Amino acid sequence: MAKNTNEVPINGLYDDEGRILEEQAVEGRSDNEAESAEESAEVSLSKEELAALCKESVCPECDMFKEAEAIRLRALADSENVKKRLLRETEELKKYAGESILSDLLPILDNLDLALSHTDNLSAECKNFVVGVDMTRKIFLDAVRNHGLEAVQAAKGTEFDPEIHDAVGTVQEPSLGDNRIAQVVQNGYRLKGRLLRPAKVMVNKL
Fold this sequence. Notes:
- By secondary structure, the chain is an alpha+beta fold.
- Among the domains are: 58-95; 99-204, Nucleotide Exchange Factor Grpe, Chain A, domain 2 (Roll), CATH 2.30.22.
- The chain is built from 5 helices and 6 strands.
């Protein structure tokens, strides 16, 4: 019985001329289709999967791998250094946040010290006023001391230190040694160990 040319091949078992395909040919077509599917699966790998495959295929002893590893380690080190620097700058900013405010308050202390330095030959009424000024100075000094402010050591007779003292003039006093502080013109202050203002002094020169 002749094959009807109008029939549609079922399940791909006939070729274009109406002949029945061999089972092996059908199986071969299935193998090709399976290979195409595998290729499609490989192409659809994510970037992370491709990176993992690439890393597995690179020999750890080759120069390219060592160079890539060195670049990665340098990037990690740079990132860690940036983090440490930012943390250090943040801590320092917090530590000295009140520096400008305390600097503006120093003239108040200077005026109180100046008022107390002119208390000789005063009447009893004025002396009571001076006591009030002195108490005000102590309260004010205690308040700023709680924020880390402390006076620079600059007593008469101590050795002149250019790191914390500012010489505004020289005098000659035989009773004092050479390069010794003869007079404190203006007190100096530190803020949490950092010099906020040097003490202005007169230095003895023999």
